[in-house]
């Protein structure tokens, strides 16, 4: 496996130099044509002065970036504030529920040790039920 790795790596590194195509510049009737094949008798080999073309950024790009950064920061602050508000509302709701349950716990529940008998309930005698 190692025997194939090194030659393959060498060929990969060498391939851009081998595959670099020639560019020809031809002028035909006030029109300039660039081609990878000679396009006529007046074709001349074109070599770029620079290897990489660099596009200059538009003016005011720093101001746009600062405005975008300020917008993102404001949005994050609004989200954090909304989360804090939601947590506070939830805490207040929990407190209100706890207060309601405390009121219900304070109401005394009376236990009737002697419930009315089935005969008393069937007779629909309210005096019997009170005892």
Account of the 3D structure:
The protein is mainly alpha-helical. The chain contains 4 helices and 3 strands, in the order αβββααα. The protein has helices spanning 2-19, 61-106, 118-122, 126-130, and strands spanning 23-28, 31-35, 44-46. A 3-stranded antiparallel β-sheet has the order 2-1-3, with no helix packed on it. Strand 1 (23-28) and strand 2 (31-35) form a beta hairpin. The radius of gyration is 45 Å and the shape is elongated.
- Alpha carbon gyration radius: 45 Å
Total of DSSP H or I helical runs spanning 4+ residues: 4
The biggest beta sheet is recorded as: 3 strands, antiparallel
N-to-C CA distance: 100 Å
Strand content: 5-15%
In total, the number of strands is 3
| Overall pLDDT score | 76
- The helicity comes to 55-70%
Strand order of the largest sheet: 2-1-3
Low-confidence stretches: none
Order of H and E elements = HEEEHHH
What is the fold's blueprint, element by element?
Elements: H1 2-19, E1 23-28, E2 31-35, E3 44-46, H2 61-106, H3 118-122, H4 126-130
Antiparallel strand pairs: 1-2, 1-3
Which key terms come to mind for this protein?
131 residues; mainly alpha; 56% helix; 11% strand
Summed up:
The chain has 131 residues and is mainly α.
């Amino acid at each position: 496996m190692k025997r194939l790795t090194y030659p393959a790596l060498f060929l990969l590194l060498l391939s851009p130099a081998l595959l670099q195509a020639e560019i020809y510049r031809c002028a035909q009737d006030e029109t300039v044509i660039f081609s990878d094949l000679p396009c006529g008798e007046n074709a001349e080999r074109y070599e770029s002065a620079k290897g990489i073309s660099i596009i200059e950024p538009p003016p005011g790009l720093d101001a746009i970036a600062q405005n975008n950064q300020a917008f993102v920061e404001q949005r994050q602050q609004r989200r954090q504030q909304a989360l804090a508000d939601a947590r506070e509302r939830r805490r207040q709701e929990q407190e209100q529920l706890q207060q309601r349950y405390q009121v219900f716990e304070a109401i005394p529940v009376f236990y009737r040790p002697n419930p009315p008998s089935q005969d008393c309930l069937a007779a629909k005698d309210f005096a019997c039920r009170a005892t």
